[in-house]
Amino acid sequence: MMCRLRPRKRGFTLVELLVVIAIIGVLVGLLLPAVQSAREAARRMSCMNNMKQLGLALHNYHDTHRKFPMGWAHHIEDRLTGTGRGNCFTTNHGAGDRIGRSPWTAMILPFLEQGALYEKFDSNYAINWALHSSWAGGRENEAVWLTSVDAFKCPSDPRNSEQDNLLNYLGVSGGVEYTCWNLGDLDSVGVRGLDNDGVLYLGSKTNIGHVLDGTSNTFLLGETKYPRSRGQDPGQDNYLGWGSAGMAWNSVPQTAICATARDQINTFYPSMAPGQTPSHAHMQRVFGSYHPGGCLFTMVDGSVSFRSENMDITLYQTTGTRADGLPVGGASE
Predict the structure, then answer these.
(1) Which NCBIfam families did the record assign (predicted)?
(2) Which of 21, 143, 303, 327 is most buried by a 10 A CB count?
(3) SS3 31
(4) Where are the beta strands (DSSP E) in 271-313?
(5) Rounded Cα gap, residues 303 and 299, in angstroms
(6) Chain-centre distance of CA 233, in angstroms?
(7) For the segment 240-277, what is each residue's pLDDT rounded down to a tens digit?
(8) Which parts of the chain fold into alpha helices (H)?
(9) 128 closest CA partner among 254, 284, 287, 282
(10) Where are the domains of the chain?
(11) 259, 75 in Cβ contact below 8 A?
């Protein structure tokens, strides 16, 4: 009787196994950037939706009050008298009712389905730009100030996981700085963000009729990645949120909720390396985002568009102003 030999089962050799692993690694390497790109595209779309919501809320406010809300307020502008810096406003914007003190972010809360939060907002302390126990009234708005409002947060910003009250969208106060003061560059005396040729600025009362350059040609809001955040500040009690308005120290008013389209998008100054805590100048003069290549802007007409960080600087600054009389593209020709 003949015996049949069973066929031997052949497995992978070590070389074949390594080849298969290498092929899988290459495929994963090719697929991962595509997945990351798709996720960023989704986050950017979500961010764009936030900016459309904010633009719509600002327009609903305008329809109700016949003007856009004030960009921001400050209670000490009278202290500029006698400093040589002048005073281009005749009233103290910190006095009076809720509308007299609250920043644009607080004023549009009812139009973002946040009416209950709006009612809790104490306008007497809306000027505090940071949370600090040593400042009088600094914690009066703490519970509201620390509340997360998704419409104010860009999903691409990694700080979302460490700061609930993050603000990624600033009002555009203009395109060239210090026209209000007419004293040129005042960096040496610390005056920043006081442009008033945009739509949202210190004490602003602008309406659609003031936007002579055209609502589709003028910035209303822009993305930011520069405000100090909880993770950037070592003490974690000196940082910005959506409820911040004017800076709290009693020297000169400086904005924490609006910025001027003065310096190129995503700019880092030579004295500052990426990753460092942004300076006050960054917060008030530079727009930028964690989206590759530029950032989003809401126009006065409510549309949202992406602007490249390589955009012509003069055209960029012109788009930040509401009534300079220059046509689209004319400033760069």
Answers:
(1) IV_pilin_GFxxxE (TIGR02532), pre_pil_HX9DG (TIGR04294)
(2) 303
(3) helix
(4) 294-299, 304-308
(5) 5
(6) 18
(7) 788 876 654 444 556 778 888 988 899 875 555 555 56
(8) 14-65, 98-101, 104-107, 115-120, 142-145, 280-285, 313-319
(9) 254
(10) 35-320
(11) no
